[in-house]
Design goal:
Radius of gyration: 24 Å
Largest sheet: none
GO biological process, one term: transmembrane transport
Helix content: over 70%
Shape: globular
Number of strands: 0
Family: Belongs to the binding-protein-dependent transport system permease family.
Subcellular location: Cell membrane
CATH architecture: Orthogonal Bundle
Number of helices: 12
Number of domains: 1
Membrane topology: Multi-pass membrane protein
Keywords: Cell membrane, Membrane, Transmembrane, Transmembrane helix, Transport
CATH class: Mainly Alpha
C-alpha cells in the first residue's frame, strides 16, 4: 500500500515537472518564433490575424533595417565593444581568480570581500556617476588636446563593461578553481613548470567549462546592455540595443512593422547562434564541479 502511494506520488511529481518544463519551453519558443515570422512579413499582413503565417519571405525588411536604419553600423559597434570587453575581462579576471583562489597572501581575504561586495552593485545606479566622472575628465583632456577621448569612445565603453563584470566573473572562476585538486600543480612543479606556466598550460585548460559559462553570460550582458551605451555614447558609435530602440520609435510612427521586427532578429540572432555553439560545453560547466582523478 505504501509502495503504491509512493509510486503514484512519484508519477504525479514527474508529470508536474514535465508540464512545467513544456510550459516554460513554449513560453520562450513561441514569442521568438513569432518575431522571426513577423520579420519576413509584408506590412499589409500585420492588419490581419497576428498568428497567420507569412505569405512569403519578404527579406526587404532586413535590407531596409540595414540601409535606412543603419543597423549594420550599430551591429559593428556592438561586435567591437563586446569583443573588446570580453578580451579585457578575461585578461584581468583569469589571473586574478587563479591567484585569489590558489594562493594565500596578505590582503587575500580583504580583496575577496571587496569582490563579493561588488556583486551587489547595480550598474544602473552608477551610470550617471560614471558619466559625470568621464565628462569631467574629458573636459580637462579637451582643454589640453582639443578632442573628446573618453565619451563616445568604444574602447572606453568596453573597459567599463569589463570593469562592472569583474566581481561576478572573479567570484565564479575563483569558486571553480577552488574545486580543482592541487595534485596537478604539484605534478607541474615537479616537471619544472613555474607559476605562469602552470597557470596557462594546466589550470586554465582544466577550467575551460567555467570559462565558457563566463564568456556566454558576459556576452549576453554586454550585447544587450542599454543604459551605459545610451549614456556614454550620446552622438555616434551607438550599439545595437540603442539602435533598436531608435528603429522601433521610427517604424512605429511610420506604421511600418516589418523592419522593426527585422531589427529584433538582428539583435537576437548572434545570441542564439552563440548559445547553440557552446550549449554542450555550457551543460558540462553547469554540472561538473571538479575533475575526475
Amino acid at each position: 500500500m505504501k509502495n503504491s502511494k509512493k509510486i503514484s506520488l512519484d508519477g504525479l511529481m514527474r508529470v508536474f515537472i514535465y508540464v512545467a518544463l513544456i510550459t516554460l519551453a513554449v513560453s520562450i519558443i513561441v514569442p521568438v518564433a513569432w518575431v522571426f515570422l513577423a520579420s519576413i512579413k509584408q506590412n499589409k499582413e500585420f492588419y490581419g490575424s497576428p498568428w497567420s503565417l507569412p505569405e512569403g519571405i519578404h527579406l526587404a525588411n532586413f535590407v531596409e533595417a540595414f540601409q535606412e536604419a543603419q543597423m549594420g553600423e550599430y551591429l559593428l559597434n556592438s561586435v567591437l565593444v563586446t569583443a573588446m570587453a570580453l578580451l579585457i575581462l578575461l585578461l584581468v579576471a583569469l589571473p586574478a581568480s587563479y591567484a585569489l583562489s590558489r594562493f594565500e597572501f596578505r590582503g587575500n581575504r580583504l580583496i575577496n570581500s571587496i569582490v563579493k561586495a561588488g556583486l551587489f552593485i547595480n550598474v544602473s545606479y552608477i551610470a550617471v556617476p560614471i558619466f559625470l566622472m568621464l565628462l569631467d575628465w574629458d573636459t580637462g583632456l579637451k582643454a589640453m588636446l582639443g578632442n573628446d577621448l573618453l565619451l563616445n569612445n568604444r574602447f572606453m565603453l568596453a573597459l567599463i563593461y569589463a570593469s562592472t563584470a569583474l566581481p561576478f566573473t572573479i567570484y565564479l572562476l575563483s569558486s571553480y578553481f577552488k574545486t580543482l585538486p592541487a595534485d596537478f600543480e604539484e605534478a607541474a612543479s615537479i616537471d619544472g613548470a613555474g607559476y605562469y606556466r602552470t597557470m596557462f598550460s594546466v589550470m586554465f585548460p582544466m577550467a575551460a567549462p567555467s570559462i565558457v559559462i563566463v564568456i556566454l553570460f558576459n556576452f549576453l550582458l554586454f550585447w544587450n546592455e542599454y543604459i551605459l551605451a545610451l549614456t556614454l555614447m550620446p552622438a555616434s558609435n551607438q550599439t545595437l540595443p540603442v539602435g533598436l530602440l531608435n528603429l522601433m520609435a521610427a517604424e512605429r510612427s511610420a506604421v511600418n512593422y516589418g523592419p522593426m521586427y527585422a531589427g529584433m532578429v538582428i539583435v537576437m540572432l548572434p545570441t542564439l547562434i552563440l548559445y547553440i555553439m557552446v550549449q554542450k560545453r555550457l551543460t558540462q560547466g553547469m554540472t561538473v564541479g571538479g575533475v575526475k582523478g
